[in-house]
């Protein structure tokens, strides 16, 4: 207990000292949700070289903690690849598009390879899905949100209303027309994504690129907001994705999400392999999500803060990649620090982060994390395959207000996995079907101490 008190006091002292350096007010919210905003920000780190690597793959899934740039990177890939089309269906010359100006006028790395840029930029019909606004309160509410998502997507292709006829026009209008969309059946909704990819591929005589952001958004909503009918919701999404990701119509697909439950939604999705690139595993895309020490040093130097590097690394470093001599920093925290020059706990400002902390207060979890903050080792078992039953199990654990409830070993593993996916921990190594985890940095440790000790502010 003494170690914990000393650690808490030191964190509080550091926190108060750092806040005293502030020259401007620390923002309570900071949303950097697209590539254009990132490029124009005061702390842009160029990741466009990874576009070349993306073109070497077919169907890929990225999972990484929240605040690690998944949405920005997906938007970057979409803006680079997407064919720009007018409301009449004619192709807009690439040089006349905002995306062309974004890549060329800011002289990003990918533009320096003129051969690759000219070969691939703005040449592919593309569809972008954002699943983050799908709620899991009930199956009825979920379907209402999903119809809205599909309707908004169809409305971006109004030229099909004049270029189609017969049954194809009827099917298109079923999702384009709000009045008709309300009456559409589940079977029609399940096939709506596939139908749109077929229309686009035939209209432009090219296979389609598909991008899906926050693939597991509704699963997180079910777990953290006591959603209902998760079996029906997840079964619907599996069927939708199975129909959507048809390799005969889709050339490439990039999906991103936060938790390990993404893979559950893609079970038997296509007859093509979807390669999963997990944040804590060694792979070619490791540096895509998160900032490296070198990238942070460069950004600080550009803003006259080179001498702050040691302090920055102490506060925001380090998420480890086992098997590589590589650590990553949370981009959101670095962005805001460079703007405000104030060290703070920025990564956890969101409702989902606030809600996820309740899992830490469960007595079996609290005890393990408390031991970890004292310097003891913390392990949990590898879960190779997540199921709908795991979603239900974790949802019920979270909803149970009894913090002293007994949890079995698998339930403890589910809780720790979820917190790891959110970024509360980092992986030291995986060995003998067990994961050894650590607290990554003082930013997260400060947040954890506040949860474990309600009297610490």
TrEMBL record:
Report keywords, A-Z.
Signal
Entry protein name: AAA-ATPase-like domain-containing protein
The source's superkingdom equals Eukaryota
- The residues covered by the AAA-ATPase-like domain are 41-259
Coiled-coil region list: none
Q: Which organism is it from?
A: Clastoptera arizonana (Arizona spittle bug)
Signal peptide interval: 1-24
